[in-house]
User: Fold Cytochrome c oxidase polypeptide 4 from Epidermidibacterium keratini.
Amino acid sequence: MKLEAFIFGLCAAFLFVCGIVYGFVTDPIEPVGFAALLLSGGLCLFIGGYFWFISRRIDERPEDRADGEVIEGAGELGFFAPGSYYPIGLAAACTLTAIGVAFFYPWLIGVGSIAVLIAVVGLMFEFYTGQNTTGREH
Assistant:
């Protein structure tokens, strides 16, 4: 995680420097790019800080050491969902809500918000019902 923190820290520094230079070069003309570069740098700094904080709490990974071997990273990486349609439904519901906000259709915002809630609940509880149930026999 230290490498990831370093990379995001470099990106943040680069964006801050570019934002300051951009702000001086286009001072009265275009303030939105200045704000966007500074906010992007802040987001990179936020992510890099998170990775740095996490790297202090976990053991050093093989990819963080100079003498680390590929074989040391072998094994189980975690649990991943085998397949789900809920992310597609959630994306469609968010798109529907965003269209409602963009054109300010309150009825579409309501329908999209309800669809988002249904998709989020389905995504959260998909391993408690159906064929992907974990922890109990059928």
User: Anything to note?
Assistant: The helical segments are 2-25, 31-57, 86-103, 106-124. The radius of gyration is 22 Å.
